[in-house]
Amino acid sequence: MKTFQVLQLSLIFSIFVNLVQSQYLFPDDFKFGVASSAYQIEGAWNVNGKGMSIWDRITHTTDIVPDNATGDIACDSYHNWERDVEMVKETGVDFYRFSLAWTRIFPDGYISYVNQDGVDYYNNIINKLIENDIEPVITLYHWDLPQMFSPQGGWANPAIIDLFTYYAKKAFEFFGDRVKLWITFNEPKVFCQDFNLFMSAANEVYPSGVIDYMCTYHVLKAHAETYHIYNREFKATQKGRISLTLNFEWSEPGSDSPEDIAAAEQRRQFEFGLYANPIINFDYPKIVKDRIAERSKQQGFPESRLPQFTLAEKLRIRGTYDFLGLNHYSTWHVFAAAERDIAEISYESDMGTFRNQSNEWPTSGSDWNKVVPWGLRRILQWIKKTYRNPIVLITECGYPDQTGTLDDEPRQDFLRDYFNATLEAIHEDQVNVQAFTIWSLMDNLEWQQGYRIKFGLFHVDFEDEARTRTAKKSVAYVRSVVETRKTD
Ligand code: GAL
Question: pLDDT digits over 441-484, tens only?
Fold first, then answer.
């Protein structure tokens, strides 16, 4: 065959492949959802008996959040919950992932006093969702620890394990007849490895590389105990599933050098394996254990700064997941780096490596939320390989801008690209990913960024007392993907 004919044939073939690729369909049982969290949307921070959380304290007493922004009113979902359900309905998705404010139900955190108003509030939302054929998915802990537990060190204090499991058990009793998907923790890496931020108050400093690992250790134990309580006491009758949600930014080797390839894997294990490995495999990842033990030794600590599990604890934690919840936002290039000064005691120096993002990757409304859809596909492939292809539910993924414009084509493009990456992972890599959740249902309080960064499918008018919500363009797009199962 002549070269020209070969070229023509290969062109036709690649057009055909592209056509087929863009026509991958989401399987019938693949679920779509939208997400929010209590502190970011509810407001009514002290209304009808709600107690104070650490985020109420952080926004009231520190200057971490710009513009003096607080969640005191936020989207006022405490009063607008019926409209919220209507909005979820309008997107056409199958489920709504939201979180319980622990202190709305138990104002002091302890279960000795129940604030019935809080129970009623969540019952109303759950019932309304079900009436509308929307599945409620509940996160028990999305960062708003009862303030009462903060002076004792919060997640650094082992007492928190029982306090959390008591609360979780009550949540199963109150809502578990109707809630079939539970998430114990949202992104422990964020609230443990950034411990100072979450506990910030005048004159308190919690040393990184010590306290944050205590948090990790207690969260993993609390998660496992909660899983076992659900399994033992509720699963047979309530027939739900339970796990936790971990955040994962993809670490791509910065070059083909063996050092950078190893550095990227090291970073994945420190950021994701630290939590996923004890639950899905066994114990902390070896590289994480070895590095922290070695650095601790050189620093003169009598034992590793990473609290070690006993054999019984390892066995108790292993297997405590019915699926793996994944939050994903962006991707980084990771490089090997010279060992940091041994005098430096911190999670970052234990992890080593350094990272940056390519200028060629499209940006969004937030510095580091670069749009890199292939990073999501690599994550899904890596999870399949590292953890024997577990069920993965993408519990958050979304696009921020700074304007909140209704004409949000970049968000639509982002969603199309990340949906396609998911489709490729399903159809070409046989990854067991079964759900995609968009962050977020509406613009809301974006933690340390206040109201400057907007992730919503719905715009919220924060100047307006009624906090009027308006659909952005991407709502219609999401609806069409859910209906047609295709991205175009
Ligand atoms: C996640 C967090 C969400 C939301 C999102 C957007 O880490 O779970 O609450 O803020 O980031 O940045």
Answer: 999 999 999 999 999 999 999 999 999 999 999 999 999 999 99
Q: Is residue 15 part of a domain?
A: no
Of 139, 150, 140, the closest CA to residue 60 belongs to 150
Q: 357: CA distance to ligand 1 center in Å?
A: 20
The residue with tokens 């250790």 is 217
> Tokens 């801008």 — which residue?
401
Q: Is the CB of 55 under 6 A from ligand 1?
A: no
C-alpha 395 to ligand 1 mean position (Å): 11
Residue 138 φ then ψ, to 5°: -110, 130
Whether residue 204 is predicted with pLDDT greater than 90 in this model: the reply is no
Q: Nearest-CA neighbor of 288 among 302, 308, 315?
A: 308
CA–CA separation, 123 vs 464, rounded Å? 27
- Is position 2 within any domain? no
Residue 245 in contact with ligand 1 by CB distance below 6 A:
no
Residue 34 pLDDT: 99
Mutational pocket test of ligand 1: of 192, 411, 440, 447, the residue with most ligand atoms within 8 Å of the beta carbon = 447
What's the mean per-residue pLDDT of the chain?
A: 95
Q: Is residue 1 part of a domain?
A: no
| Domain assignment present for 86 | yes
37 lines ligand 1 (CB under 6 A): yes
Give how many domains the chain has, as a whole number. 1
Here the CATH number for the domain that contains residue 377 is 3.20.20.80
Q: How far is the CA of 6 from the centre of ligand 1 (A)?
A: 50
What beta strand segments (E) does 280-420 contain? 324-327, 331-335, 354-356, 392-396
- Residue range 119-145, pLDDT digits in tens: 999 999 999 999 999 999 999 999 999
> Which residue out of 187, 249, 252, 424 is catalytically annotated?
187
- Catalytic residue flag (residue 187): yes
Domain range holding 161? 27-484
pLDDT tens sequence across 80-96: 999 999 999 999 999 99
Which has more pLDDT, 451 or 200?
Answer: 451
The pair of structure tokens assigned to 403 is 């304007």
CA 247–ligand 1 middle distance (angstroms): 9
